């Protein structure tokens, strides 16, 4: 056992906890989410998570450690059960006593899940700090489970189950997406990687998704989501993207490109923008900006519901409009005046050839003063060195790397980026990228990078490029 490293990690935990304590006392609240969503908490909390996880890997026996990881699918599955059977909402609405708790039998009377099985699902989650087992077989929401509350009443959920995620924070929808479609696809990744043809293919039609569902061998996942029979999945996907957004500080999109520098009347086009939730803070904080949300027609059709719930004035004033369009087709002529093309979490959905196609369509339509803002994970190597054979790999921001003895890429504290990289592999045969990989794609479409905002504090990094 490497006691020296264990000590160094526990020292780091102590100093980061001291910082968190100081910050918490300045907030004058003990509420969990009030603290953890604030920007200044990000660095010390990342340090605690990275150090504590590294510590666990050092002190656990290797066999136990491997078994903990290889059985993690039971956690995803259990989360899917509670989201799809409304356990969080049942506890919030029907729970009794100071903790608003119910026995598994009482919960089962509302959602019709066998209570003996439900108790086991809830117990594994409570064992991992999601829900509290208040007394044997009696459960309550806690600070983590309550984040999956869609705010709907049981009457609403029963009457209109397809609207479960509408106007919610999107977290339950995101849990649903990860634990259902994404999980399903990932089960086939080993088969794809061992297949002599598929392993070397970078076609979007050769993702694990192609093997995961009946009839998906020749259709890309987004086209499948747009099929009428998958309407409920498409709706959930849209809200899941909003959930991804609500995980970050609410002004994350504002930390990077200087949106307020845009002239009055400037148009921002949120390309592949889903319902446009990411651009909400831009519209709220920059009254001089008008927004076009561009996505496939079935997706943008959901946009007005989101804006009606979150910023009805912008909708009424016509500051936000929607454009049903595939970014693989030439951009409509009316987009010639767009000042900023925002592509958030788009590049990571597509293999290189398709990314270049999207960028070339934007380039053909954009004027010489336009900017393109790419918001996506920027990948770091787990090794301390970030260079390949002497080549700089683009860690332009030294603050992006974690301090020693942590893994340089922030280890488990940053695991969602690496899970997303593999989610992109299994969903779309795509990937997350390093800065030089982005630079290469952009230069193929005649753009060059002018700004990289990579620091972990901004959560999702931004790359700003201009036409050449
Ligand atoms: C990962 S989501 C990102 C959504 C949004 N930009 C965000 O950051 O929340 C990818 C989006 O690309 C859209 N998309 C997929 N294929 C498209 C196409 N051919 N044309 C336009 N949008 C597309 C999807 O509908 C989806 O909304």
Automatic annotation (TrEMBL):
GO molecular function: O-methyltransferase activity
Coiled-coil intervals, chain numbering: none
Gene3D superfamilies from the UniProt entry: Vaccinia Virus protein VP39 (3.40.50.150), Winged helix-like DNA-binding domain superfamily/Winged helix DNA-binding domain (1.10.10.10)
InterPro entries referenced in this protein's UniProt entry, alphabetically: COMT-like (IPR016461), COMT_C (IPR001077), SAM-dependent_MTases_sf (IPR029063), WH-like_DNA-bd_sf (IPR036388), WH_DNA-bd_sf (IPR036390)
Domain named O-methyltransferase C-terminal: residues: 232-387
GO biological process: methylation
Keywords tagged on the record: Methyltransferase, S-adenosyl-L-methionine, Transferase
Keyword Methyltransferase assigned: yes
Pfam families: Methyltransf_2
Source organism superkingdom: Eukaryota
Protein name, per record: O-methyltransferase
Source species: Daedalea quercina L-15889
């Amino acid at each position: 056992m490497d006691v020296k490293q264990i000590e160094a990690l526990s020292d780091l935990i102590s100093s980061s906890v001291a910082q968190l304590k100081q910050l918490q006392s300045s907030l004058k609240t003990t509420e969990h989410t009030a603290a953890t969503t604030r920007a200044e908490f990000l660095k010390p909390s990342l340090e605690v998570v990275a150090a504590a996880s590294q510590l666990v890997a050092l002190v656990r026996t290797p066999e136990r450690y491997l078994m903990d990881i290889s059985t993690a699918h039971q956690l995803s599955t259990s989360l899917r059960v509670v989201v799809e059977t409304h356990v969080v909402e049942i506890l919030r609405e029907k729970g009794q006593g100071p903790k608003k708790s119910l026995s598994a039998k009482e919960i089962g009377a509302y959602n019709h899940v066998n209570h003996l099985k439900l108790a086991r699902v809830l117990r594994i989650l409570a064992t991992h700090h999601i829900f509290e087992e208040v007394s044997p077989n009696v459960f309550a929401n806690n600070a983590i489970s309550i984040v999956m509350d869609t705010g709907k009443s049981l009457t609403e959920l029963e009457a209109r189950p397809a609207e479960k995620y509408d106007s919610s924070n999107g977290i339950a929808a995101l849990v649903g997406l990860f634990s259902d479609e994404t999980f399903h696809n990932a089960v086939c990744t080993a088969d794809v990687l061992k297949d002599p043809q598929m392993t070397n293919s970078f076609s979007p039609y050769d993702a694990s998704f192609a093997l995961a569902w009946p009839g998906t061998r020749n259709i890309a996942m987004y086209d499948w989501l747009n099929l009428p029979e998958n309407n409920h999945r498409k709706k959930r996907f849209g809200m899941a993207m909003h959930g991804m957004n609500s995980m970050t500080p609410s002004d994350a999109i504002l930390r990077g490109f200087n949106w307020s520098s845009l002239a009055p009347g400037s148009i921002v086009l949120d390309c592949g923008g889903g319902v446009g939730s990411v651009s909400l803070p831009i519209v709220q904080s920059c009254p001089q900006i008008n927004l076009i949300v561009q996505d496939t027609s079935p997706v943008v059709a959901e946009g007005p519901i989101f804006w009606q719930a979150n910023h009805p004035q912008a909708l009424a004033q016509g500051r936000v409009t929607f454009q049903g369009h595939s970014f693989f087709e030439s951009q409509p002529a009316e987009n010639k005046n767009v000042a900023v093309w925002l592509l958030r979490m788009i590049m990571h959905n597509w293999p290189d050839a398709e990314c270049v196609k999207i960028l070339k369509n934007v380039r053909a339509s954009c004027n010489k003063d336009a900017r393109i803002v790419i918001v996506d994970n920027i990948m770091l190597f787990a090794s301390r060195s970030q260079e390949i054979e002497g080549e700089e790999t683009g860690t332009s921001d030294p603050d992006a790397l974690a301090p020693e003895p942590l893994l340089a890429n922030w280890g488990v504290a940053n695991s969602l980026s690496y899970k997303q990289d593999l989610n992109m592999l299994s969903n779309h045969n795509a990937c997350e990228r390093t800065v030089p990989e982005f630079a290469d794609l952009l230069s193929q479409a005649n753009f060059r990078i002018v700004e990289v905002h990579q620091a972990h504090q901004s959560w999702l990094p931004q790359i700003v490029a201009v036409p050449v």
